[in-house]
Fold this sequence. Notes:
Elements: E1 2-10, E2 16-19, H1 25-31, H2 44-51, H3 59-70, E3 76-80, H4 86-95, E4 98-103, H5 108-117, E5 123-125, E6 137-142, H6 151-164, E7 165-174, H7 182-207, E8 212-221, H8 224-232, E9 236-244, H9 248-251, H10 254-262, H11 264-273, E10 280-287
Parallel strand pairs: 2-8, 3-4, 3-6, 4-5, 6-7
Antiparallel strand pairs: 1-8, 7-10, 9-10
Helix pairs in contact: 10-11
Amino acid sequence: MRPWYKYSIDADVRGKKFVGLDExxxxxxxxxxxxxxxxxxxxxxxxxxxxxxGYHLGRxxxxxEFIRRHLNKEDKILSTASGRSANELYLMEEGAYNITCSDxxxxxxxxxxxxNLFPQFKFYxxxxxxxxxxxxxxxxxxxxxxxxxxxxxLRTFFQxxxxxxxxxxxxxxxxxxxxxxxLSYLIHDCLLKYEVCLLRAKKLFTTGKLEGxxxxxxxxxxxxxxxxxxxxxxxxxxxxxxxxxxxxxxKRSYFLNKIISASRAAENxxxxxxxxxxxxRMFCFYKT
Length: 288
Ligand SMILES: C[S@@+](CC[C@H](N)C(=O)[O-])C[C@H]1O[C@@H](n2cnc3c(N)ncnc32)[C@H](O)[C@@H]1O
């Protein structure tokens, strides 16, 4: 496990500012750009066009491809940390999957807007690090959450998920971040760390204003082996795994992004290298 920091410049900050991990629901919501309701809630097609197709560089469509390969419509499914629940709503709407969503919280406004558009939407509050689900399920989804807990809390997560699954039940999990290896270290702990200083100097040169640097403890990076070994401790065995999103980590860099966008050849080269640092790693575990 390696802590993962994100670096940015901010006109309202002087010098350096360190920001800790998100803990509260409103901090997670802010990290997702706010869980507000907007005109996308006017119709189902607007909702999916806004929050599913192409959202976050196609992240949710990668999830959807893997989930459909492993879940059955007969499954009784719980989604933990479902956030806006766009994946789950798409599966319910287009595939008639039986899914109950859950998260730390959900505003009354978002709940009402979601049910208004999707009357079959089911939701309850669940802190999966605090307790198992109140019922057992034949499948559990967890998309883009396990980057948050440290190792002790990730063990608690697997324990609670295992307790919430029927025997033979499945956990569909997304790593929510690239593996901890030399290439991800080079990008996150070297390139992006120093690139932000160059961007700050560039801004000073063009605007005459010296902005501060924000260092955010975003979360943790783990190898496949670390995730699989921890799941095994709680009777969850790996059945399948697929990697997606090979350019995301490179595209965090202002300079690499420009190179990747410049030519098809560059994009192909970075896509090949990106197989070592997939942003999305989907795991399917089954409970023994
Ligand atoms: C990055 S968002 C992912 C939301 C959604 N699954 C997606 O893929 O777009 C992380 C979500 O995890 C939720 N979360 C964080 N800690 C949690 C916990 N201990 N139990 C349940 N949900 C949690 C946050 O409230 C947030 O909605």
